[in-house]
Design a protein that fits this description.
The protein is of the alpha/beta class. The chain has 10 helices and 15 strands. The two termini are about 15 Å apart. The model has no long low-confidence stretch (mean pLDDT about 95). It binds zinc ion (2 copies). One zinc ion binds next to loops.
């Protein structure tokens, strides 16, 4: 850690030093929020697989050094000029939707998450939540309800809204058969949300060992995709209205397409590198569809938090202190974390 002037208040930040570089814990002075921005005192920040974007320089134009982190939970600590509707001390989250231009066609329609001009992500566009403090646009804040701790709220700001939001907009109605493909960082939340929304919920994963967990999370059925054909099993259950694909494996997505019922829809939130192979005939003759879904905007995150608080949906977390961010990141990348790694500032 770098020394700093003992007379000025300081903060810790964990930054990626250069493209594909190592993490470094540094001390810096605490920044002031500019117009339209607030300062958040970070209490918890989830480590998301998408933080690989910053670590490995997967988006063009990222300025280094850069602190990752778009699953932030904390409290407003200072408010910049021109900010209305938020107060100091208020508990807030900051997620993947970290700002937008406000004037493009998407923004004029209120569809900020598809902003075409200046969509911002904390930890990519500006320093994110691997830190004691974060400066964020007020338009990107989500209020955290009392019923959620910061460690619980943080992963809901990305993994939570990414599963809650497409499910609630899916067109499925209570009692419909809804399958969640994959029980990991996203899927373990998707199964809980689907069950609490009143869907007949199916969890699909590899291996019989995941069955007890799937049922504990609220799934009514479990399909072991190694032991059986998941499409055939879904057909036996009547055909899925929705399959929410949280895995990052295109072949696994293809393998469930045959399990969609008439008017069934595969909703993709995991992003594989390889293309998806799709037989067209069942799409045409059963009005089946395949769509992607990009998380949600700050109000979607706020509604995710509220729904979780009311319904009892909670992320399963492994907690690391901020100074062990590099270790926490490796734990997340190993795929062994159950299921979200969260940094705390203590
Ligand atoms: Zn994320
Ligand atoms: Zn815009």
């Amino acid at each position: 850690m770098m020394p700093r002037d003992k007379n000025s208040p300081g903060m810790r930040t964990v930054r990626v030093t250069r493209p594909k570089g190592a993490f470094a814990l540094v001390e810096q002075s605490i920044p002031e929020p500019g117009p339209g921005h607030v300062r958040i005192k970070v209490e918890a920040c989830g480590i998301c697989h998408s933080d690989v974007v910053t670590k490995e320089a997967l988006f063009p134009g990222i300025q280094y050094p850069r602190a990752p982190g778009h699953e932030v939970a904390g409290a407003i600590d200072a408010i910049g000029a021109g900010v209305a509707g938020w107060r100091t001390g208020q508990r807030v989250g900051l997620g993947w939707h970290g700002g937008h231009c406000g004037h493009c066609l998407s923004c004029r329609r209120g569809d900020f998450v598809t902003c075409q001009v200046a969509f911002q992500m904390p930890g990519v566009s500006y320093d994110g939540g691997y830190a004691d403090y974060v400066i964020a646009p007020a338009g990107a804040l989500a209020a955290i309800p009392d019923g959620l701790s910061s460690v619980e709220a943080a992963p809901l700001m990305c993994a939570g809204v990414t599963t809650f939001n497409p499910l609630r907009h899916s067109g499925a109605r209570p009692g419909d058969l809804v399958a969640v493909l994959g029980i990991g960082g996203l899927g373990h939340l998707g199964v809980q949300f689907a069950a609490k929304m009143g869907f007949q919920t199916v969890a699909i994963a590899r291996g019989e060992d995941k069955r007890p967990l799937a049922l504990e999370l609220g799934a009514h059925h479990y399909i072991d995709s190694q032991a059986s054909d998941p499409a055939a099993e879904l057909v036996k259950l009547g055909g899925a209205r929705i399959v929410l694909a949280t895995v990052t494996n295109a072949a696994a997505m293809s393998s469930v397409l045959g399990g969609l019922g008439v008017d069934g829809k595969l909703i993709i939130v995991g992003v594989p590198a390889e293309p998806l192979e799709v037989p067209i005939v069942p799409l045409v003759f059963g009005r089946r569809a395949i769509v992607g879904w990009p998380s949600g905007s700050s109000i979607d995150s706020q509604e995710t938090l509220a729904f979780a608080a009311h319904s009892g949906v909670r992320p399963m977390t492994e907690v690391f202190p901020l100074e062990r961010a590099a270790e926490g990141y490796e734990r997340m990348m190993s795929g062994k974390a159950r299921f979200r790694v969260v940094l705390t500032t203590g």
